[in-house]
Design brief:
With 152 residues, the protein is an all-alpha fold.
Length: 152
């Protein structure tokens, strides 16, 4: 009986001073809205098991002209995340986003032209896209531009 009493007292003291009895909140199912808030609308925030959900979410948003969603669709197609990889479709979505001034899409489009992924290799066009993103203070664009375009 004394052992049980001591155990109960230790648990109560622990709960009062250390907080070990504190439980984690029960997780709720992740909805599309919650996903966008948690992961900043980027495909990298999704586990491979949820790529189909990500595709549906970004595709729906891209139909409304969401530049971030369009860029994310480009990643989905470029990397084949939940869909068959298709570099031409990836470039299409990067272009849609880049034409709205999304600097990440401008860099992605520049990389596509630099390496000829989904488009004919064209370092001049790559540099044009890197220059546009660089004007928006994209660190990646600065790096690509200085590495591939300044010496041209």
């Amino acid at each position: 009986m004394k052992k049980i009493f001591n155990l109960i007292m230790m648990v109560m003291i622990c709960a009062l001073f250390v907080g070990c009895a504190k439980q984690k909140p029960v997780s709720t199912p992740v909805t599309h809205h919650r996903v966008s808030n948690e992961y900043g609308d980027q495909i990298g925030g999704y586990s491979p098991k949820r790529y189909s959900q990500a595709y549906e979410y970004f595709y729906t948003r891209s139909l409304r002209g969401d530049a971030v969603a369009e860029n994310s669709l480009g990643h989905i197609y470029m990397d084949g995340r939940g869909v068959k990889a298709n570099t031409k479709k990836a470039v299409y979505w990067y272009e849609q986003s880049a034409h709205q001034g999304n600097r990440e899409a401008e860099v992605n489009l520049g990389v596509a032209y630099l390496y000829g992924r989904g488009v004919k290799k064209d370092v001049g066009k790559a540099c044009e896209w890197f220059s546009k993103a660089k004007a928006q203070n994209s660190r990646a664009a600065f790096d690509f531009y200085s590495g591939y375009c300044e010496s041209r």
